[in-house]
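Team,

Forwarding the record for the chain on the shared tracking sheet. I've put the sequence and predicted structure together so nobody has to dig through attachments.
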Amino acid sequence: MKKMKLVVASGNKNKLREIAEIFTEYEVVSQKEMGFDEDVEETGTTFAENALIKAHAAAKALQCVALADDSGICVDALNGAPGVYSARYCGYHGSDKENRDLLLKNMENITDRSAYFACAIALVWPDGKELVAEGKTYGKILYAEDGDGGFGYDCIFESDDLKKSFGVATSEEKNSVSHRARALHALKAELQKM
């Protein structure tokens, strides 16, 4: 039996892989693969608002059910920063290394290293119907990078659940406790109620 397509409003291969590993009953495809390559501006002030903006754009353009996520790292000592600006913390979008370096610099001489990753997942139908789920995972910011696995801030975030950085965790370990995995599982649970 052919799997139903789940269109993801992202071109991030790492996110697509994580979503595919959890939504195994679907064929997970990027919006670009479906012919929509517009870079949608994230103007929301929350992860949920940004996820909805992206999902609505893809659902409308492709006339299909579209899934989008927005996620980031929130550091207690920095009043929740970088937060929704995690991907462009260094001033522009796209440099994980520069974002990590700036965060580590801003954390110099700060002893409270507590932080969490947050994720909002939005599913939007072509008629405008919406479903949003959120997930968080808690830990702390390390003093230096640990490992080269994962992406984004993974190698400077030590998970409270795993007692190690996401940079050294296997994808199975990370997916068992990550913010995105928790949001995706919450979304699946909501879908099953429909």
